[in-house]
Amino acid sequence: MTLPPAAGAPLDTGSLRLMGVDHLAHVTWKPAETLVFYRDVLGLPLVHAITATGWVSETFPDFVHFFFALGKGNHLAFFYYFGLPEEEDPGDLMHRSRHLALHVDTEEELLSWRARLKEHGVRVTPPLAHELLESLYFDDPNGIQLEITRPLRAFAEVDARDAELTLRALADVTRDKTPTVEDMWLRKGELARAHTEQAEEKVSTR
Length: 206
What we know:
Elements: E1 21-27, H1 31-41, E2 46-52, E3 63-71, E4 74-81, H2 92-97, E5 100-103, H3 107-119, E6 128-130, E7 133-139, E8 145-151, H4 157-173, H5 181-204
Parallel strand pairs: 1-4, 5-8
Antiparallel strand pairs: 1-5, 2-3, 3-4, 6-7, 7-8
Helix pairs in contact: 1-4, 4-5
């Protein structure tokens, strides 16, 4: 009889290694409160925000996907979906949103993991690029969505500044109405313009 490996000892996967958790994702209906809690109360830096329309299919809701740094390359991420009532649980949408993303460093590793999963009969997506990440998606036997992801580049200061504008705009438009992604983009443009004008005014008064 073949015994399972000892606790903490992985099965042999050759040279393939998963390098820890890249991000753990959840859904929020309260983006402003979420931003204040994780950034201001817990002190986690807001490092990136993705805005997407028409993701996966035309019926998939517009969303903002934003990331806080946990340290050591790990992140906590949230989705805010435009027009999604809090009491509604559309099943597949929550399944796609609440996922565990595991980290690899290179495209070669990502493709090797895809080949390994397919060899084991696991249904897995092709590599999908979304802004600064490229990822595979697949389900475990319990129906939990897993992701293996590689960075296309490291998060930079410009990404943190853009995320700050995105979340400020999202917080503003979700205060007292049901917003759309277009409302958020318009508000973000206003905030960016005001920021640029303030910076130019400081330069001109020197």
